[in-house]
Amino acid sequence: MLKGHGLVYPIIGLASCFAFIYMSFGDLAFQFMEKKMSFVEREGVRFVVDGKPFYVNGLGLRVCRTWAFNDGTYNALQVSPGQFNERVFKALDLVIEEARKHRIRLLLSLSNDWKDFGGKAQYVKWAWEAGLSLSSSNDSFFSDPSIRNYFKNYIKAILTRRNHLSGLQYRDDPTIFGWELMNEPHCPSDPTGDTLQKWIEEMANYVKSIDKKHLVTVGFEGFYGPASPEKMKINPAEHFNKLGVDFCRNSKVAAIDFTSVHIYPDQWLPQGTDQEEKKRFVSRWVASHIEDGQRELNKPVLFTEFGFSSKNKNFSESHMIEFYKHIFDIIYKSAVKKGAGAGSFIWQLVEGGMNDFRDEFDIDVRKRPLLLGLLKEQSCRLAKISNGMF
Ligand SMILES: *[C@@H]1O[C@H](CO)[C@@H](O)[C@H](O)[C@H]1NC(C)=O
Ligand SMILES: *[C@@H]1O[C@H](CO)[C@@H](O)[C@H](O)[C@H]1NC(C)=O
Prior knowledge:
Blueprint: H1 10-31, E1 41-43, E2 46-49, E3 52-53, E4 56-57, E5 63-67, E6 78-80, E7 83-84, H2 86-101, E8 105-109, H3 119-129, H4 140-143, H5 145-159, E9 176-180, H6 194-210, E10 215-217, H7 247-251, E11 259-263, H8 265-268, H9 275-297, E12 301-306, H10 317-336, E13 341-346, H11 369-384
Parallel strand pairs: 4-13, 5-8, 8-9, 9-10, 11-12, 12-13
Antiparallel strand pairs: 1-2, 2-3, 6-7
Helix pairs in contact: 1-2, 5-6, 9-10, 10-11
The chain binds 2-acetamido-2-deoxy-beta-D-glucopyranose (NAG) (2 copies).
């Protein structure tokens, strides 16, 4: 999700996220400061740290997903291909260092399909400005060799960045949970899925050629494509079959360590769909992907975004709570059975001072005590079956 933001301040936003996490869990976090962090690894369908199972709970406790890109827009990190703003890079260093101090790991995304913070359209614009001949489609991000090189240069610059505070290169820093190639990639210009598949293979292998320590994922919502024709009926509507994304096929790429799913029934299902029908969709969507992780992929499935729209007709807090609880329960049940459901991240937690980030899905838990209670409950019960850090 990422639409219609105005000017935004990514780094400040991240800092606020940590401030929030610290306010909620600071004391506990500090008890673990002395212990050195280990890299998150994968064993079959589960994440492990030091050989013990590790579940992600988007709130606060362990892992925060955020952007490690801002291409060509306000406060850009990458000002033009291969040119970086050192001041912004230092701010990203600080975010990672603060995360480490609070024993929070970061799932870092490297680009965006949407135009927010630049996205693939910015790369295409750069290529046009450089006089390269290419199709005007923004999907030439995935197919054009020069743009693929721009993006590889970007990957290399991030992975080999030496954090001016810790002295560590990002690729050697266990604070980083893993790399996400792109937020919500779509390549509708090639609905066969071949273009995106090739791009994923090339980019995931490129990351691994520089960094063998971190996990890599694609970053998509989980839409099924033509390689799994029988599953396309689980997609929220027919047009999602033609986005050039193919959940099972893409997730099988050997260099992809775990897979991801987003959950937005309010935006994906037709207007006016009622709560019960949305819940049925969510049950199918979540269960189907967890099953894929177990049966077909043998990889963990992380629910990297989900949200409930405050713009819903008849919005009520009780519906919202019911929606979150429904998802948490399915993930928890999977975890108890040692299944592939590896945790979830709410889109999106905000707090004071983050007005530029707000959207119809934002949650300020200080104003939502019931939801905060639910998050704590989910965190605690997942923690009990995790590696004992919380
Ligand atoms: C590419 O994306 C940008 C930003 O969303 C948009 O303005 C532009 O029209 C798109 N180009 C094409 C050819 O669709
Ligand atoms: C909203 O509430 C009205 C009255 O209870 C109901 O008829 C309608 O189906 C509801 N709409 C949705 C989208 O749930």
